[in-house]
Specification:
Shape: globular
Helix content: 40-55%
CATH class: Alpha Beta
Radius of gyration: 19 Å
Largest sheet: 8 strands, parallel
Strand content: 5-15%
Strand order of the largest sheet: 1-2-3-4-5-6-7-8
CATH superfamily: Metal-dependent hydrolases
Distance between the termini: 15 Å
Number of strands: 8
Number of domains: 1
CATH topology: TIM Barrel
Bound molecules: hypoxanthine, zinc ion
Number of helices: 16
Length: about 325
């Protein structure tokens, strides 16, 4: 089965680029930028990754990314991920980035986006992996700051396919960002947002995302199973979910494998992704393997993924054809 998954043409739709910062690169960037880290080795750093819920993870995540300072730092970060993804036969990725996690500490938007963009272009040329960027707003910051970030992104609109919403969901419902999302839609961005697993008011947040915001897809969202009418609604609308089993297994009580499978059985466009693989150990290959899915289910997960990508129809179809060729052989 590992070989079957390895050969499968894959798609990644839920991946925080800052969450791919492996300890080795963290040390390299700290050295490059003349920064001291509170760890003496890669092993010691990994041992300090002792989180068991979303807030405790986020503390380590934001602390870790402070070594990212210059355009080449962002380039190297994205290139390292794209190399790893390409090695797992990920054919296409939609990559989240958190501009406010950098602009808030003095890194210009222009610096970070140019580094990421240059890596995407080089990876496509050198590795044959295609990728697009999704700009996420930090939901524990004020909506006004998200709006300012949205406006700051407009000169780079051609390089960003859509917007998302991440960070700590508790007390930060989708409705807080209704005006930001409305403006993002007017600007031509596609819309997604995290509805993290087992949050306070999870189902109400999912409802707001679908009915009040009108998202094009949902990141995580497995709690939708608690409301069959909402499941019917996303089935009718074709809204996909980007699930992340290994991440779930660390920040909640389980990988939510049963729920993911149930959604798949119901015909929901479920996809399997890696979230923050430097922290929740496992890239797409390992996340797909974690669920013990059948070949047919694995194929369906990748069909779902390519189908809900934010790519032009003809490019989607080319990836889907590649997948069916693999299935036939
Ligand atoms: N959830 C919410 N915010 C995040 C995550 C996540 O898994 N990863 C990075 N930011
Ligand atoms: Zn996420």
């Amino acid at each position: 089965m590992q070989d079957f998954i390895a050969g499968l043409p894959k798609c990644e739709l839920h991946l925080h680029i800052e969450g791919t910062l492996e300890p080795e690169l963290k040390f390299e960037l700290a050295r490059r930028n003349g920064l001291a880290l509170p760890y003496s080795s890669v092993e010691e750093m990994r041992a300090a990754y002792a989180f068991d819920d979303l807030p405790s993870f986020l503390t380590v995540y934001y602390e870790g990314m402070q070594v990212l300072r210059t355009e080449p730092d962002f380039y190297d970060l994205a290139m390292a991920y794209l190399r790893k993804a390409a090695s797992q036969n990920v054919r296409y990725a939609e990559i989240f980035f958190d501009p406010q996690a950098h602009t808030s500490r003095g890194v210009p938007f222009d610096v970070l986006i140019r580094g990421l963009r240059r890596a995407l272009l080089d990876a496509e040329k050198q590795l044959g992996i295609r990728a697009q960027l999704i700009m996420c707003f930090l939901r524990d910051f004020q909506a006004e700051y998200a709006m300012a970030t949205l406006l700051e992104s407009l000169p780079y609109k051609e390089w960003i396919v859509g917007v998302g919403l991440d960070s700590d969901e508790k007390g930060n419902p989708p409705a807080k960002f209704a005006a930001v999302y409305e403006r993002a839609r007017q600007e031509g961005y596609l819309l997604t947002m995290h509805c993290d697993v087992d949050q306070e008011n999870s189902v109400e947040h999912i409802r707001q995302a679908i009915q009040d915001i009108g998202v094009d897809r949902i990141d995580h969202g497995v709690n939708i199973l608690e409301d069959p009418a909402l499941v019917e609604e996303i089935l009718a609308k074709g809204i996909g979910l980007t699930c992340c089993p290994i991440s779930n297994g660390i920040v909640t009580d389980s990988m939510k494998a049963e729920g993911i499978r149930k959604l798949l059985d119901l015909g929901v466009r479920v996809t399997i992704n890696s979230d923050d693989p430097a922290y929740f150990p496992g890239y797409v290959q390992e996340n797909l393997a974690a669920l013990n899915l059948s070949r047919e289910e694995l194929l369906q997960v990748e069909r779902n993924a390519f189908e809900i990508t934010w790519l032009p129809r003809h490019i989607k179809d080319a990836y889907l054809a590649e997948l069916e060729t693999y299935a036939a052989n």
